[in-house]
Structures are given as C-alpha cells and as structure tokens.
Amino acid sequence: MSDLAITKIGKYLLEETDVTYYEWFFHWEEWERVVIEEDTIGYHKDDFIGFLSDAKTIRNRLHLAGYNDRTLEQDFNATKSIWIDELQDDINYYVSRAERRGFDSRYTATMLADTRRTLNVFSNATFGEWKELCKFHVERKYKLSKDIIRSDLYKYFSEDVSHVISDNNLGFAGLKFPCTQRESLALILLELCEDNDPCTLDITGLVRRGWITDKGNIRKGTIVSITSTKFYDNFCSSLLELRTLSGQGYNQTIQRMIYSNVITVMEVYLSDTMKTNVVNREATKRQFVRKSEALKRDKNFSLNDIYEEMEKIDGKIIKEIDETSFHSMKVVPALFKSVLDCTFPEDKVGILKNKVDIRHDIVHRNGNDVNGTPIEITENDIVELIDLVMCVITDIDKQVVEKIIN
To answer: What angle, 0 to 180 degrees and rounded to 10, lies between the N-to-C axes of helices 252-280 and 230-246?
Structure first.
C-alpha cells in the first residue's frame, strides 16, 4: 500500500502528494470510507479512505471551471515555449564554449549538434502529435497512428526528456507532455476513460502514517491536517545538513558559505511555493496577475491578440517569479500576503532583513562589511539564523497548507 495521497483518473495516475492532499474537483458528498479492520486502518489492500467520483462528473466540473481543449493547448504552447527557450540557452552556451580554448571540442560539438536536433524536433512537433504520444505513454494499449507521428518525437517519449529539460521546467509531475497544470493532464487522461470509470482521491496512506487524523465515519470538519508541504520537507532536510556541516569547525570561508546557503534554502522554499501555487491553482493565478506590476505594464496588445496573449500567460508568470528576489524582505512578505494570503511573522521580518544584509556582504563584498571589515561568522551565528529561518518558514508553511486543504 502506498504512503501517499493518490489521485487517479480512471486507472491512470494524475498526482501523488506526500504528507498533504488537495481536494481538487472532488466534492464532500463523494467521501468514501471502507476499513476492513479498525485496529489496523490502511493495512488491508481493500481499505479506502478518500473521495470517489466518475470520469463524466470530473470532466463536467473541469469544463464548468473553464478547462477545455483550448486551455489545454494554451498550457501546452506556454510550456513548450519555455522548453524551447531553455534549449536555445543551452545552444548559446555550447556555442560560447566552442569559441573558448581549453574545452573538449569534440564533446562540445556533439552536445551542440544534439541540442540543435532536439530544438528542431520540439519546435516542429504539433500539439496534436504531442497529445497522441502522451496518451500512448500512459496507456500502451492506446492505438497510436505512427504514420502521422514523427519518429524523432516518438524517440523522446521512448527515452527521458529530463536529460534535455531541467527539473524545474519538466512540466506537471515531470510529464513528458509540455504542461504545468494538473487540469491539463486530467483532460488528456479523461480522453482515455469511459464516462463511468472511477476517479479517486485516496488518502488512506496519509491516515496510516498519521498525517491525517481519522475519526471514523468522518466529514470535512473532522479531518485534521498535521502536516506540511513537500517544499517544507526539502527545506528542513537542507537546514539539517547545514547545521551538521557548521558544527564541524570549518574555517571562516566555509562558515560564511554555510551562512549564505541558509538564506538560499529559504529562497528556494519561497520561490517553489509561490510558483507551484500560482501555476497550478487558477484562483491564485488570477490573483497574481491582478497584483503583478510587471504584467500591469504589459499593455502592448489589442483585443484581437487576447487569445494569443492568454497562451503566453503561464510563461510570463513563471519568468516573473524566477526573476523575483525571494530573499528580499521588502518584496516577499507583501507578495505572499497579496497572492497567497499568507502573513510573515511581524516580529521576525526586521531581524531576518538584517541577516539577509549580512548575507549580501558575504556574497557581494567577499565577506566584508561596507567599511571593509571582515565579517566573522561563528557556529552560534549559523544556529541562530537557522532557528530564525525555520520559525518564519514553519509559520508560512502552516498557512499554505491551510489554504490548500480548506
């Protein structure tokens, strides 16, 4: 039995989440609880705690919420553009590398040729081709018309696209189909389903592990989350490694690097949390667009171009988030409040800003303050910073989880 929350469309996996879950388009009247032995909940293969609906119902709810073939293609085009931009960046890198001495010219030439070939394949592959291959990827019995599918694109579905696209841009759930929203993948999976095929959100594993409190024949008010997001788990693991590393008595250069990296770990959590919630939750995405000063200034198009602009919106959002300085205590608290309705602890923001300023001197002044005096970082300084960052992010993550579940 899995220890995760598992969402399936028919027999096809839509999403797996650790320690928390998202109700998505399931309704509470679809709550099901089948437990064979009350003393060993979740250990019997037939145990099920979660939501049970059908493909027709989920499809209708998606359509009513505005998700359809048009939004699927928009998501595809926006993500495909990101993939193409990333490949072009790689090409520029290898071109630059080839012009410099001291590098393996044969390796560089091979990588440049491979990347150009990949860019050509991705640029010319159509939405229809990619969607057909996606359905074949998840359902090998799906009848694929290979005579209309380019063999070079088919090759990428036989291998792993992650060797040419970075982990951050792989798309929803690392899928080989370019998309960033779970709704897009759901629409594709629903095309493989009959109307009465079951759609489930199974949280039995979370109950068994103790992340969700099971109180018998429960309903919404009696499920209690005691958990965190996956980004918080990664954050905690990284801080633990840094705390252990700091205690090994390294010199000042290493201690400054550890201090700086604590702030970086915080940045990664904040950036990943913002990006995931904005891209994958429609209401949050709209809020981000409303509050974005950069998007507000982007007015150079007419109503005739509105659909083309909508296709680009995810790419523009991701670009803006990626360009945000998530260590800035002048920017980030306001951003989290306006978009995610999450409040930074007021008594910690000023202290954290001072710590970030020290990190700035470490990174940009080679470890000296504005007067040129070397900054000394002790093990206790790092422990204090880790405790401070942990306190702030723990508070934020609890608010994020509450927003997801409620």
So the answer is: 180
How far apart are alpha carbons 378 and 168 in whole angstroms? 34
Mean residue pLDDT of the chain comes to 81
| CB contact set of 31 (below 8 Å; sequence gap of 6+) | 50, 51, 218, 219
3-state SS, 154-212, equals HHHHHCCHHHCCCHHHCCHHHCCCCCCCHHHHHHHHHCCCCCCCEEEEECHHHHHHCCE
Of the chain, the end-to-end C-alpha distance in Å amounts to 26
Q: Which amino acid is at 289?
A: V
pLDDT for 172 equals 75
Buried b (16+ CB within 10 A) or exposed e, 108-132: beebbeebbebbebbeebebeebbb
Give bridge partners of residue 7 from the DSSP assignment.
Answer: 15, 201
Give the phi and the psi of residue 93 in degrees, each rounded to 5.
Answer: -65, -45
* 105 alpha carbon, distance to own chain's centre: 36
* CA dihedral (204, 205, 207, 211) positive or negative: negative
Which pLDDT score is estimated for 224? 40
Residue 190 has pLDDT above 80, yes or no: yes
Is the whole-model pTM more than 0.70? no
pLDDT one-digit tens code per residue, 201-228? 999 888 887 776 665 544 444 444 445 6
**Cα 304 → chain centroid:** 32
Distance CA 359, CA 256 (A): 8
pLDDT of residue 150: 63
Q: What is the rounded distance in angstroms from the CA atom of residue 181 to the CA atom of residue 285?
A: 11
Alpha helices, H only, 42-99: 55-64, 69-98
Quick check: 304 pLDDT over 70? no
CA 334 – CA 328 distance, rounded (Å): 10
d(CA 110, CA 133): 27
Q: Which DSSP symbol is given to 216?
A: S
310: pLDDT strictly greater than 50: yes
**How many Å apart are CA 401 and CA 395, to the nearest integer?**
10
**What six digits make up the tokens of 394?**
């723990």
Give the H or E element holding residue 37.
none
- Give the gyration radius of the chain's Cα atoms: 24
Q: Which two tokens stand for residue 294?
A: 């950069």
- The backbone torsions φ and ψ at residue 368, rounded to the nearest 5 degrees and listed phi first, read -110, 155
